[in-house]
Amino acid sequence: MDFETARRHMVDSQVRPHDVTDLRLQTAMETTPRELFLPVELRDQAYVEREIKYAPGRHLLTARDFSKLVAAADPKPTDLVLNALCGSGYSTAILAQLSEMVVSLESDEVLAAKAQENLTSLGFGNAAVITGDAWAGAAAQGPFDLIFVGAAIARKPSALLDQLKDGGRLATILREGGVSRGVIYLRNGDALASTPYFDASTKAIAPGFEAPKTFVF
User: Fold this and answer.
1) Model-level pTM greater than 0.90?
2) Average pLDDT over the chain, rounded to an integer
């Protein structure tokens, strides 16, 4: 399979037509081998226009949803980024090209090791993978300019929001009432505001980010 051509086609058909105009992001997605971050048996699906489950509780978002979420997050070259639940490292590889430093958090030790291997093989010296609870975050490495949760969540990520700098953003896909929306939380002093940016297709809730259980009498 010609992966290079498939990458260009992915950006031309799944990214640019959906109001993702950031040339840095387009270039990062066009040059990063998305297939490398999938198991060998799934690599021929790397550029199809659908979400791909590649490990328990881990999904590679559609290029459309992912690019729109990154664009809404607006990573800057001076940003310190926390990439919570990084999986095999694809989102980290993209964010590392758009920011100064990325701390990637993954609860699965095998996936964390694979993510670090992938990032090292591609020469990313400004990304480090640590093993830990994505819901709890990485306060010792923060505070962060940007926190990225590239998956659907069903409750407000309070612990992560506490790790934002003043003026910092948290980007994620919030699923409520059967609808998924790309959302940006913005910290302004002690205040937090959330703004929905787009409707997303993903439905799978990230492990640890499920809605709290309620008692029914």
Assistant:
1) yes
2) 94
